[in-house]
Write the structure tokens for this entry.
Amino acid sequence: MPNTPQQQRRSDRVEAVLRVGAPFLDLLLLVGDRVSRIVGPNGDDYYAIRPGERLELGGIRSRSDREPTRQPEA
């Protein structure tokens, strides 16, 4: 179903605001990334997972693998 004229005007306004604000939002993301790299801990233990690689969690088990918890009987 096509948009009403009022919906189309509102959509155009929102898109215009996003177009104008996009460079500022990109700058904000860039600054945040740089600050987090400077302030954050050293990333020696960070290993990026590449497409096609499998993530091995070792001894970590999911909640479904654990024993069920017992509810106290009333």
